[in-house]
């Protein structure tokens, strides 16, 4: 019996999807609930599993095609055994052999070709590089290079270590700068959406950024003192993000305009702190939302962030995970950024940027001491947030982080 595989029903905010990656081809056997294709929307990548055990009979769209909700994208012959390729869309091209057959075939063909080739053209084993100096020989062996194919620039045409390195990287001897390859790759659906939203932010928001710095010495001491017991009790590490998320949620309650958003000529005040946490993935930046952070404990925040990070890495984030945030926190410090001006994520009105922690000289009680300092930045929509509110909001976060015991007591 033939079973149709359809595009899942997409939310109203998502008009269509793009075929990102087929994990199966026509003629392949599949099992129920096995992922057969990834669909990329403006916000997330959706996995489409098989609904039955069987063999893929037909694939209707190639990678890169645009599809809509409930559209049929593949046909599976239920209960069939894998065998010769079934009918397939012409756009998919010639049927490839099964993975195991392809490996055996390629090895066999390679051996035949090698046997027929003249001795002078056969690839040589690393043992043929024995005449090289030790350093060059090591480079040739580790990079799998046949030195006889490399043009030497050393004395009397000898092949040097540099020659081998240049050969491996595609550089041409005697040509300054070597090869200059180029590749044109279309943007992914998610990357195009990120670009569009960044331009929307730039064009529609009167954005301004304020800075401050925080002494994280007491936070670090608290983590050192309680971190081991915290992990034992809650099964999750006590990181820096929970301190920043909790301090932010508290400050948003005291400065509700920073948590507001603009809708036409209206300002919408949110009585809750739904904080978007920026997470970097191979496909781009995503911002899943921690709901009601003002009610959450440190362990809940850390676990929520860890769960989202894993889902982001595995491509498992859903559309609901990414919608509805009222404020965003981004941490460029994980990549070494010392200072930046983060971009507001519309329709939100502000974003907090964390940065790298560096020991710097500061003055405490009239003495110059070294302290673990972090620059923090608040970018905000100046249409509704005045400089005074933005600065006081940042100072509030600074005071909480420099006095974490007061924050833990809700003071």
TrEMBL record:
Top EC group: transferase
Gene Ontology MF term list: dihydrolipoyllysine-residue succinyltransferase activity
CDD domains registered for this protein in UniProt: lipoyl_domain (cd06849)
Entry EC number(s): 2.3.1.61
Cofactor binding annotation: Binds 1 lipoyl cofactor covalently.
Q: Could you tell me the Gene Ontology terms of the biological process aspect for this record?
A: L-lysine catabolic process to acetyl-CoA via saccharopine; tricarboxylic acid cycle
Q: Which cofactor does it need?
A: (R)-lipoate
Residues of the Lipoyl-binding domain:
2-77
Q: Where is the composition biased (Basic and acidic residues)?
A: 108-117
| Keyword terms, alphabetized | Acyltransferase, Lipoyl, Transferase, Tricarboxylic acid cycle
Show where the Peripheral subunit-binding (PSBD) domain sits: 131-168
Catalytic reaction(s) noted: N(6)-[(R)-dihydrolipoyl]-L-lysyl-[protein] + succinyl-CoA = N(6)-[(R)-S(8)-succinyldihydrolipoyl]-L-lysyl-[protein] + CoA
**Known pathway:** Amino-acid degradation; L-lysine degradation via saccharopine pathway; glutaryl-CoA from L-lysine: step 6/6
Q: Where is this region: Disordered?
A: 85-159
Q: Which GO terms describe its cellular component?
A: cytosol; oxoglutarate dehydrogenase complex
- The protein's role, per its UniProt record: E2 component of the 2-oxoglutarate dehydrogenase (OGDH) complex which catalyzes the second step in the conversion of 2-oxoglutarate to succinyl-CoA and CO(2).
Q: Which family does it belong to?
A: Belongs to the 2-oxoacid dehydrogenase family.
Name of the protein described by the UniProt record: Dihydrolipoyllysine-residue succinyltransferase component of 2-oxoglutarate dehydrogenase complex
Q: Which gene encodes it?
A: sucB
């Amino acid at each position: 019996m033939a079973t149709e595989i359809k595009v899942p029903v997409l939310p109203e905010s998502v008009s269509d999807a793009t075929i990102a990656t087929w994990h199966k081809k026509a003629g392949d056997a599949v099992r129920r609930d096995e992922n057969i294709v990834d669909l990329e929307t403006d916000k997330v990548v959706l996995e489409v599993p098989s609904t039955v055990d069987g063999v893929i009979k037909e694939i209707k769209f190639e990678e890169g095609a645009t599809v809509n909700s409930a559209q049929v994208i593949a046909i599976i012959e239920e209960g069939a055994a894998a065998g010769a390729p079934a009918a397939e869309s012409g756009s998919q091209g010639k049927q490839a052999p099964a993975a195991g057959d392809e490996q055996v075939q390629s090895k066999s063909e390679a051996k035949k070709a090698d046997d027929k080739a003249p001795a002078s053209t056969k690839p040589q084993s690393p043992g043929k590089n024995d005449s090289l100096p030790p350093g060059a020989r090591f480079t040739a062996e580790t990079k799998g290079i046949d030195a006889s194919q490399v043009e030497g620039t050393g004395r009397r045409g000898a092949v040097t270590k540099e020659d081998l390195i240049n050969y491996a990287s595609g550089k041409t001897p005697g040509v300054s700068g070597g090869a200059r390859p180029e590749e044109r790759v279309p943007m992914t659906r998610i990357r195009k959406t990120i670009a569009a939203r960044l331009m929307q932010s730039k064009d529609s928001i009167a954005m301004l950024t304020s800075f401050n710095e925080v002494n994280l010495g007491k936070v670090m001491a608290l983590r050192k003192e309680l971190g081991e017991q915290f992990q034992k009790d809650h099964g999750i590490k006590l990181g820096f993000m929970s301190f920043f998320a909790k301090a932010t949620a508290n400050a948003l309650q005291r400065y509700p305009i920073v948590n507001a958003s603009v809708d036409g000529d209206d300002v919408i005040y949110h009585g809750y702190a739904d904080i978007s946490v920026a997470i970097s993935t191979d496909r781009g930046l995503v911002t899943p939302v921690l709901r009601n952070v003002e009610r959450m404990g440190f362990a809940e925040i850390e676990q929520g962030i860890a769960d989202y990070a894993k889902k982001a890495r595995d491509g498992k984030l859903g559309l609901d995970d990414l919608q509805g945030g009222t404020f965003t926190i981004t941490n460029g410090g994980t990549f070494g950024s010392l200072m930046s001006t983060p971009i507001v994520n519309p329709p939100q009105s502000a974003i907090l940027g964390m940065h790298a922690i560096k020991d710097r000289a500061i003055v405490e009680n009239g003495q110059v001491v070294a302290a673990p300092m972090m620059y923090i930045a608040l970018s905000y929509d100046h249409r509704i947030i005045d400089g005074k509110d933005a600065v006081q909001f940042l100072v509030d976060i600074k005071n909480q982080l420099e006095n974490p015991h007061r924050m833990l007591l809700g003071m």
